[in-house]
Amino acid sequence: MTTQPLTVSPAAEKAMEELMREAQDAAEPGAPSGTVVEGFKKDGATAVLDSVSAGHVRVWNILTGEPSIVNRNMLAAQLQKTDALGGWAFTTDFSKVKGKPVIGTLTCLLHADHPDREMHKALGFKPCTKHNLQTALDVRTHMQHRHRREWESLQEAKKTQIEAEERQVRMAVIDRTQRFDLQQKAKEAKGERFDRISTEKKD
C-alpha cells in the first residue's frame, strides 16, 4: 500500500471533511483491558463509555475492514492514503467497508493471559490487551513496533538461554568423550597385561 497522498478534488475534499467530522473517538492505545469505545455496540446496546482519548480516532481499511487507531492530528494524512487500485484505503465510516475483517486469535506476548505472563511481570513488563493477531508474524511485528524494548529484552534472554543450553550440550559431549577415552585406555591396559601374563606362562 502506498503512503503517497492522492491529489484531492474539491468534491473529494468535502467528502474527506465529512469523514473527519464523523470520526469516532477511540481509547488511548494501550488502554487497560475493558475500556469501551463510544459508538460501538455491546450485547445489542450502545456501550457505556469508560475511557476515551480526545486525541485518537478509529479508522477502517476499506478493503479488509481491519480497524486501526490513529492520532487525530494524523487523520487527514491517513484518509488520503490509497490502496493498490488507486482508491481510498481508509475510512471513518464503517458502512463504507467492503470486506469483513479476519479476526485472529493470537495474543500479544505481553497479554495478561499469555503463559509466560508471570515471568514478564517479574521483568516489569506491563500487560497488553492485543488479542486478535492472525499469525506468528503478526505477533512478532506487533512486538517489534509496539513493545520494542520488551521484545529486545526477550530476544536477549532467549539468546542467553540458547547459549547456555548449547554450552551444556558441549560439556556433555566432552564428558562422554573423555569417559570413552578412559574406558578404551583401560581396555588397552587390561589387554596388555593379559598378553604379558600369557607370554610369561609360555616362558
Pick out its properties.
203 residues; alpha+beta; four-stranded antiparallel β-sheet; two-stranded antiparallel sheet; 44% helix; rod-shaped
What can you tell me about this protein's structure?
With 203 residues, the protein is α+β, with helices and mostly antiparallel strands. The protein has helices at residues 10-22, 75-79, 117-122, 136-146, 148-202, and strands spanning 25-26, 41-42, 45-46, 53-61, 67-71, 90-91. It is rod-shaped. It starts with 9 loop residues before the first helix and ends with a helix.
Helix-strand blueprint:
Elements: H1 10-22, E1 25-26, E2 41-42, E3 45-46, E4 53-61, E5 67-71, H2 75-79, E6 90-91, H3 117-122, H4 136-146, H5 148-202
Antiparallel strand pairs: 1-4, 2-3, 4-5, 4-6
Low-confidence stretches: 1-6, 30-54
* Major sheet details: 4 strands, antiparallel
> How helical, in percent, are the residues?
40-55%
> Total number of helical segments?
5
Structural class assignment: alpha+beta
Question: Could you write a compact summary of the structure shown?
Answer:
The chain has helices at 10-22, 75-79, 117-122, 136-146, 148-202, and strands spanning 25-26, 41-42, 45-46, 53-61, 67-71, 90-91. The protein is an alpha+beta fold and 203 residues long.
